[in-house]
Design a protein that fits this description.
The complex is a heterodimer of chains A (402) and B (250).
Chain A lengths: L7 E2 L5 H27 L14 H16 L1 H7 L10 H21 L7 H6 L6 H24 L7 H24 L12 H27 L6 H31 L1 H13 L2 H23 L7 H28 L8 E4 L14 H24 L3 E2 L13
Antiparallel strand pairs in A: 1-3
Chain B lengths: L2 H22 L6 H4 L21 E6 L8 H11 L16 E8 L5 E7 L7 H5 L5 E3 L5 E3 L9 H5 L6 E2 L18 E2 L5 H5 L5 H5 L4 E5 L6 H9 L14 E4 L2
Parallel strand pairs in B: 1-9
Antiparallel strand pairs in B: 1-8, 2-3, 4-5, 6-7
Helix pairs in contact in B: 1-8
The chains are: A mainly alpha (402), B alpha+beta (250).
Chain lengths: 402, 250
């Protein structure tokens, strides 16, 4: 721990707490409404089709799941790699990780054609399916993160702190490998079938998870009137830059490989150059707003120690992450399957055409409901248990205590 | 299934086999034309488990399909009742089979063929299904167990042939022999209900001169003999899935 004693305390009862819960509750209600609407009428009320079978709910779900494993990193850096400045944030890191994962999974489950059969998914496994493995990985992640929190909160089990931290960190790497492999294992789709999807998703999780953590940390401290110093925030700031760079590196490798291999060039050219909304989302959303802008905000000397610049950088990193997931998920499905390489195909079932997808309001409501659930859980969590240090001021989070 | 029907197919099979033997040596490309009927199926008693002794498959000669397979697709639609979902958009309506027109970009050579579930030996849809609802029967028929399908659509992402559809709305007046359900995925099941009763799949029956159906494991079956003579190409053979539906003339 840092040089000065860290005191963890629940957040105080306040009007703001209830207002926040009410706002999040409204989004939760809208999400529930969307679920019941689609559940009752069937998926024809959504924008998803037999061509674009995964839509906006999956962008939200996978975004939250990816961010979940990344949010745990802050804790892992403290526990596994022994960086003491990160250790006071470990509890929040694990709480946020659990909350993000639950928020993501709820969207995924409620979008199923048969959410009522969740028990089937939990009891009947096809172990050749990465999806089945993911169900185990998600549950294990929740359990390990909970144990990790326990070892941080209860002195009686403190001796297992390192062990729990290492286990949770290892598990999260495997988990995100599994999430990326959902796409990597799709043999028939040239935009997906690559082993790079696993490490790409891992580094995406680093960036998105940290960005979410930065925003949550800031607002948790500001809204409860607790001091949060630049020492901590600047550490997170430059770490975020490293992760954004990592995403760019693997994205570059992926797209250049795609352009180089003739078989993949069709879909690559579509995404990078002729894909309309997907091309715009890639260049403007992911690259400019989601990567270059945050990097500029982080490294601009005039903005050193500027909290707003950091918050914007984190926000745009998340925007970029969602743009990236939208391009991967929807863009990858918009491009038609290649039945006959080198030939043009047509049919009354949309062969050979770019598949249109227009997300419905219900899908947006369901996705935002997942986000709301995440924030709801964090808000309640820090209120009822001692997740947040009283202070993360520079004096407390001593920069020299490595 | 009545015995007469089976006998009829057996007779037809013998005729086919005779035709194949007679003509194959001389004019291979006319093999299927001589085949009056389209294959052989033996009825399976209901108390007998499906075994891997047989692997059902078919050979479709697209050069003999004057309509590109539209008749086969129509027969499938009639048999299973898909595609008339009232509330679904066209992009959401089920399609168990469809006619695909293919034109080579360089040569401009063009042909049409019916595309449905290809009943792969190594089906990606079965590999990815988390619950095992997407399954391959021992006799090679790939289908969905709609009782344990959770509707995640991962199989639709995995299928290289876009052979699967998701039911986007509640359905009425279903065919008793082909139950479907909102929120589950479905696809061509090779008319498993007909095969088990000793009948040919509806699409095969609709195009007897162009399609031979039978046991791919039996080297002497009409379909095996025909493929040995004229070949049987796979769509996306590069994926190594070893499909049970093969084509001539693509």
């Amino acid at each position: 721990m840092a040089s000065q004693a860290i005191i963890f305390r629940e957040t105080k009862d306040s009007k703001g707490f209830y207002i926040l819960l009410a706002v999040l509750g409204a989004f939760l209600a809208l999400g529930a409404l969307a679920f019941f609407h689609a559940e009752h009428h069937g998926h024809h009320v959504t924008g998803m089709t037999n061509q674009v079978v995964w839509g906006l709910p999956h962008v939200f779900a996978i975004g939250l799941i990816v961010a979940a494993s990344g949010a745990l990193n802050v804790g892992s850096i403290g526990t596994v790699f022994g960086k003491k400045i990160y250790q006071p944030m470990g509890r929040l890191s694990a709480l946020l990780a659990i909350s993000l994962l639950v928020g993501g999974l709820i969207v995924l489950v409620l979008d199923l054609g048969h959410p009522d059969r969740l028990i089937v998914a939990m009891t009947t496994y096809n172990f050749k399916s990465i999806f089945a493995w993911n169900i185990i990985l998600y549950n294990g992640f929740l359990a390990l993160s909970a144990v990790y929190i326990w070892t941080m909160m209860d002195r009686k089990v403190k001796k297992f702190y390192k062990l729990a931290g290492v286990a949770a960190f290892t598990w999260r790497l495997i988990l995100t490998t599994g999430t990326g492999s959902i796409f990597g294992f799709l043999v028939a789709r040239d935009f997906y079938n690559s082993a790079v999807m696993a490490p790409l998703f891992i580094v995406m999780s680093f960036a998105m998870g940290l960005a979410v953590f930065i925003l949550v940390l800031h607002f948790a401290y500001t809204w409860t009137g607790r001091p949060l110093g630049d020492v901590v925030m600047n550490r997170l700031r430059y770490l975020l830059a490293v992760f954004i760079g990592g995403v760019l590196l693997l994205e570059g490798a992926r797209h250049f490989t795609g352009l180089y291999i003739a078989q993949k060039a069709g879909v690559e050219n579509f995404i990078l150059f002729d894909g309309g909304i997907y091309t715009q989302l890639f260049w403007v959303g992911q690259i400019m707003l989601g990567s270059l802008l945050p990097l500029s905000l982080i490294f601009c000397r005039k903005l050193a120690n500027n909290r707003v610049a950091l918050l914007l950088a984190a926000l745009f990193t998340i925007v970029g992450g969602f743009a990236q997931l939208y391009v991967i998920l929807i863009g990858g499905q918009a491009y038609p399957l290649v039945l006959f390489p080198g030939a043009e195909v047509s049919s009354d079932f949309f062969d050979g055409v770019i598949n249109a997808y227009e997300p419905s309001i219900w899908e947006l409501m369901l996705g935002l409901g997942g986000v709301a659930l995440t924030l709801f859980m964090v808000t309640i969590g820090v209120k009822v248990l001692r997740f947040l240090p009283d202070s993360l001021s520079d004096a407390v989070a001593d920069p020299h205590s490595k | 299934m009545n015995q007469n029907r089976v006998d009829e197919y057996r007779r037809n099979f013998m005729t086919t086999l005779g035709g194949v033997a007679a003509v194959a040596a001389v004019v291979p490309s006319f093999v299927l034309q001589t085949a009056h009927a389209a294959g052989e199926v033996a009825a399976k008693p209901v108390d007998q488990a499906v075994t891997n002794a047989k692997r059902w498959g078919m050979l479709i000669d697209v050069t003999k399909l004057t309509d590109g397979g539209a008749g086969m697709v129509a027969a499938c639609k009639k048999e299973h009742g898909w595609g008339d979902e009232a509330h679904s958009a066209d992009t959401q309506k089920a399609h168990w089979a469809r006619v695909v027109k293919v034109t080579d970009k360089l040569t401009q050579n063009s042909f049409s063929l019916p595309v449905m579930c290809q009943h792969c030996e190594n089906p990606p849809c079965v590999d990815v299904c988390p619950t095992g609802a997407s399954m391959k029967r021992a006799d090679g028929i790939v289908q969905v167990n709609k009782h344990i399908c959770i509707g995640c659509r991962y199989c639709m992402m995995a299928c290289p042939y876009k052979a699967r559809s998701f039911v986007h709305e509640a359905l009425q007046d279903q065919k008793p022999h082909s139950p479907r359900g909102m929120g589950t995925v479905e696809s061509c099941n090779m008319c498993v209900h007909r095969i088990d009763a000793g009948k040919l799949p509806a699409c095969v029956e609709a195009a007897p001169d162009a399609v031979i159906f039978g046991d791919l494991n039996d080297p002497n079956s009409a379909v095996s003999q025909a493929m040995k003579t004229i070949g049987g190409k796979q769509i996306r053979a590069d994926l190594g899935l070893n499909t049970g539906v093969r084509y001539h003339g693509i």
